[in-house]
Amino acid sequence: MSAASPPDDKAWPDLAGRLVEDNGQRRHVLPIRVYFEDTDFSGLVYHGSYVRWCERGRSDFLRLVGNDHHALLQGVDGREPAAFVVRRMGLEFLRPARIDEVLEVTTRVKETTAATLVLDQRISRHGVDIFTAEVMVVLISASGRPLRLSTALRKALQP
Question: What's the alpha-carbon Rg for the chain, to the nearest Å?
Answer without folding.
Answer: 16
